[in-house]
Amino acid sequence: MTALWTAREAALATGGGVAPGASWSADGVSIDTRAVAPSDLFVALKGPRFDGHDFVATALSSGAAAAMVARPPSGADPARLLAVPDTLLGLEDLARAARARSAARIVAVTGSVGKTGTKEALAALLAGQGSTHASTGNLNNQIGMPLSLARMPAASRFGVFEIGMNHAGEIAPLSGILRPHVAVITTVEPVHIEHFPNIEAIADAKAEIFAGMSEDGIAILNADNPQFARLVLHAKSSNLKSIWSFGEARTAQARLLDVALDAQGSSVEAEILGRLVLFRLNLPGRHQVQNALAVLLAVAALGADIEMAAAGMATLSSVKGRGVTAEIAIARGVFTLIDESYNASPAAMRAAFAVLAMRRPAAGGRKIAVLGDMLELGKAAAADHAALAPDIVAAGIDYVFTAGPLMRHLADALPATRRGGHAESAADLAKLVSDSIGPGDIVLVKGSAGSRMGAVVAALHEKSNEAKGMRDAV
Ligand SMILES: Nc1ncnc2c1ncn2[C@@H]1O[C@H](COP(=O)(O)OP(=O)(O)OP(=O)(O)O)[C@@H](O)[C@H]1O
Ligand SMILES: [Mg+2]
Q: From the CB of residue 34, how many other CB atoms can be counted at a distance below 10 Å?
């Protein structure tokens, strides 16, 4: 296997210093000693709470090939150091060099919701057509995106990256480093709005994704989103010659002709760049259909095969914490858990309710939503939580459990008959929920990652152990 970075290549890429005759080579790049793999290049970043320089010795003794440092830590072998003035800039330089040396076709995915899901779908479908490198997990910020790019093997044919932001001005420099051939903006919604005056300002910040693109780059935009026209103007002023769109609009390059939604997924008929494409999508919800159309346009824009990718849509599976469904055996039956504990916003909540609406509980079962606070909504937060009540009623959700001070507003807005219970934190709510769930129930757990609804998910998984324990004891 060719090394990802030799000492010489890394020194050239960063302008950094290595010991004379340094012979290390790295197969990966890491910034976290808890996740450092043997043969990684460990980059010692200084964060608000920790300084990676304090962990260099640990990284090297756990098998890292070398460490990029801004100051030599005591006790570290100088033959395994790459010295740079600033390690975050060093990581960015490494990323730029990874981009410059590769002939990979690069796609960047941004948007208010659906970035990770779209990125994962692209990564899975492109992998069937050529060697594909994609960012892992949710690595989409000033550190995560350059880190992901620095990890791209030179021989990759496709590179898929997620770019996120909390403030204006964050995406443009990342796009400048990535220089994507193709940029997807999934949708523009009032998410992370606390740092923005209005939705137009969010659209403007997403449009920064065009900043690093050449005129031959292709923009892929949501034709059905109210911010579409604004994004088109941005793409035009970035001189992009190709601006494609997806949605129900007649002018869309990926146009939805017909869709049959069910609880497991959707059957889709679309016209994509003039061709009729029929496919089965194994992810439920209309929002996933939208994302899938964006994915197929991106596949085409990258020069890969649309039909092959469309056929692969039937094999996609949900990303962890974003709709993974489990059947959990308990005493006297089984209940269904839909784990959406990773993320929440008004748009994502409504999308999840719509999916729950399509499910049919077994006899005696109920539809239950366990909801944690949606964070980063700014001044409108309380009203945004209360405003979910009619959607819950319309989706036929029988009981709602709520956790957190913001979700209190939803609990108060719900009809009393649908209130399951409220607690100030997910941890406090977990037992109440766990004790209330019975056979046949379908339980959706959703909240912003910071609301830690994973505690409820864990408690619900535990129920199967309790059931096993009871059987074992008999
Ligand atoms: N197009 C869409 N419209 C509405 N909701 C969506 C859409 N796509 C995905 N979602 C929902 O949004 C949630 C978050 O999805 P995902 O993690 O892919 O988003 P993200 O943009 O990567 O979020 P983050 O800002 O945390 O990186 C999921 O619950 C998913 O079901
Ligand atoms: Mg994400």
A: 9
